Amino acid sequence: MNLADRLRAALVREADGVAFLSGDHRELAERRADELTPAAVLVPVTDRPEPGVILTERTAHLRRHAGQIAFPGGRIDPEDADAVAAALREAEEEIGLPTRAVEVVGTADRYRTVTGYEVTPVVGVVPPDLPLIPAEYEVASVFEVPLAFLLDSANHRRAEMEWKGRRRSYWEIEWNGRRIWGATAAMIVNLSRRLRWT
Predict the structure, then answer these.
(1) Which sequence spans correspond to the domains of the chain?
(2) Which architecture characterizes domain 3-194 according to CATH?
(3) Secondary structure of residue 100 in the 3-state scheme
(4) Is the confidence at residue 88, as pLDDT, over 80?
């Protein structure tokens, strides 16, 4: 079975008894979908013997999420047919990943962010070593993390911080001096719980 088929099978398999994270905090689960902005991210998995996941580091001058590690993605625009189209468009805009180079295998569990987005992760397989070009304004760098590392729950840590007068807990993953945290880390935790295969 090739990588795309393995990922596809893992995404559709029943996950009985597995607890998935629905959002940055409990109150988000109570908000109506029409109170949230639909968004999508692409989870680009490189098709190599030891697959990796392509992530971006956002530029330091952005108003929101400056310097954070993220999947390529953003809000679903009215002209986007669906979450898949939005994720592919955003990945092409942000890192120059050609839409035709992505084999979409499916979508993962939606995640609600504290900033008011409901994010659909779109999982796709891409050829390794594509010449990706970060959008200068938005993306400081593009890098790849081994998929096995991200899926290993031993690398997922809970942390806490004070935010708007309340203690908030969040997930974080450290890799080669880079800190993946917040919604991106939480979506990775969800993926690790769903993408279990041997």
Answers:
(1) 3-194
(2) Alpha-Beta Complex (3.90)
(3) helix
(4) yes
